[in-house]
Amino acid sequence: MKNIIVTGGAGFIGSHLVKALLLDGHRVVVVDDLSTGKSSNLPSHPNCHLFEVDIVDELALAHLFESERPSLVYHEAAIASVQKSIHDPVRTSAVNDQGAKHVFELAVHVGSEQIVFASSAAVYGEDPRLPKRETFEPTPLSPYGFQKWQNEKDAARLAKKSGVRFTALRYFNVYGPQQDPQSEYSGVISIFVDRILNDLPLTIFGDGGQTRDFVNVADVVQANRSVQRVGGGFNVFNVGTAQETSLLELVHHLYMIENQAPNVVFQPRREGDIHRSVADIGQLMSKTDYSSNVHILQGLQALVSAIKLKNNE
Ligand SMILES: NC(=O)c1ccc[n+]([C@@H]2O[C@H](COP(=O)([O-])OP(=O)(O)OC[C@H]3O[C@@H](n4cnc5c(N)ncnc54)[C@H](O)[C@@H]3O)[C@@H](O)[C@H]2O)c1
């Protein structure tokens, strides 16, 4: 049994990860300010402990790390929004940049063996080369993308200095249950499913030909677990499916699942919207036992069923 800290563990991805770590038999300490996360996302389990702490508050965080002394830290906490990073760069930078640095430095200070953290496909920006490879020089477009890239640079520096293992996971477009459709910054899939189930039209910005690598949260959890066995130093891995899906295909799948006629409104393309994105996952597959197991259609069907079930509770 390991003692593990998961920052952002009450959020969408973090809460799925926490549940999997508990099933693996670990003790899990969740650090979350509940700004977008919810305590109700977490199971009531004797090995799961939630501390409502802002990662920007270095003293409170230091106190927690000193008393918990985790052997493994998963850092998922962030303001997970490109738009928010543009509209509120000061707070976003405090959380995504300074907050991450606090987590990394404290983990090293208390003797953690490994820090695994959520980076993002946003580091790739508008580089037109596909599929996206970890060896490409990042060219982020948004403060959010720059903050994730800065996390990677801080981690590489600390790994070199301390010998502690740091693993950056560049998530592509993650979807699955517990993603909040009410948040204006939420993923497109949760918003689309919510609107279809409420008989509302979908809005597509641009012609719908833009593509993404939509990866199910179950695959993301699997990636997080599988990197526990990766060797020393600093590593960075894409986490995706290696499958490219356009928004039009996504909409087609969703209306087919619901057996409804499409109801879509087209709006002008949004500034800064990346046209195509898909991950090369060869690195992660060759260094771990990761494979993407959830096909988009299967993942969407499961998501729609889960949301319907929840709505009927
Ligand atoms: N969802 C995606 O498609 C996606 C893609 C790439 C990267 N990521 C990254 O994955 C991680 C998890 O994202 P998510 O989609 O689950 O988002 P989320 O908003 O559901 O989760 C983030 C969690 O961090 C917490 N948090 C925010 N600021 C905090 C602070 N100052 N102190 C403590 N806790 C704080 C929130 O309350 C929330 O529980 C983030 O780092 C995000 O940048 C997500």
Bound molecules: nicotinamide-adenine-dinucleotide
Q: How far apart, in Å, are the first and last alpha carbons?
A: 35 Å
- What portion of the residues fall into strands of 2 or more residues? 15-25%
* Low-confidence blocks of residues: none
CATH superfamily of the largest domain: NAD(P)-binding Rossmann-like Domain
Mean pLDDT: 95
CATH architecture of the largest domain: 3-Layer(aba) Sandwich
Q: What is the domain total for the residues?
A: 2
* Rough outline: globular
Tally of individual helices: 10
Q: Helical proportion?
A: 25-40%
Most strands sheet: 7 strands, parallel
Q: Kindly state the number of beta strands.
A: 13
H and E order = EHEEHEHHEHEEHEEEHEEHEHH
CATH class of the largest domain: Alpha Beta
Gyration radius from CA atoms, angstroms? 19 Å
Which strand order spans the largest sheet, edge to edge or round the barrel? 3-2-1-4-5-6-11
List the helices and strands and how they pair.
Elements: E1 3-7, H1 12-23, E2 27-32, E3 48-52, H2 58-68, E4 72-75, H3 82-87, H4 89-109, E5 114-120, H5 143-162, E6 165-171, E7 173-175, H6 188-197, E8 202-205, E9 211-212, E10 214-216, H7 217-226, E11 234-239, E12 245-246, H8 247-258, E13 264-267, H9 282-287, H10 296-311
Parallel strand pairs: 1-2, 1-4, 2-3, 4-5, 5-6, 6-11, 7-10, 8-13
Antiparallel strand pairs: 9-12
Helix pairs in contact: 1-7, 2-4, 4-5, 6-8, 6-10
This protein binds nicotinamide-adenine-dinucleotide.
